Amino acid sequence: xxxxxxxxxxxxxxxxxxxxxxxxxxxxxxxxxxxxxxxxxxxxxxxxxxxxxxxxxxxxxxxxxxxxxxxxxxxxxxxxxxxxxxxxxxxxxxxxxxxxxxxxxxxxxxxxxxxxxxxxxxxxxxxxxxxxxxxxxxxxxxxxxxxxxxxxxxxxxxxxxxxxxxxxxxxxxxxxxxxxxx
Length: 182
Description:
Distance between the termini: 42 Å
Mean pLDDT: 77
Largest sheet: 2 strands, antiparallel
Shape: elongated
Radius of gyration: 19 Å
Low-confidence stretches: 88-100
């Protein structure tokens, strides 16, 4: 990308930064938050990178680019949240790094920040649809597994249930996810 292309991308986002504010609003980030300006800057950088990596022509495919850029900015900010929440891949006292689980592995593949933003949008939609059909306990399970990389033992401790009950919740979530895919 040339210097003029970078300048064009930067000018485009600084003239109308509603896309970044829209992402921050979608992620429920309020202006009073201490790192709001940092998250905004991450959004600007992600927008410029999306401009650089967009496979089509930005001038002729403006709507498609904006969808692409919106998703890229959203994933960049979400990855910042995940990094902040998973500094050392631990929650509580159990190390998640050596725990093997197919649901968590699938979700990790789905949320790869370097994947195609169009595919990421589809995967994000699937996750949101799954979250909507879950009970409050299952939602808490998803949040702990997806955002905090918690093991079943950690989830059981957080929900004040047995590991077996946590495992049953996992199977119910998997069943609902399978029903969404079919």
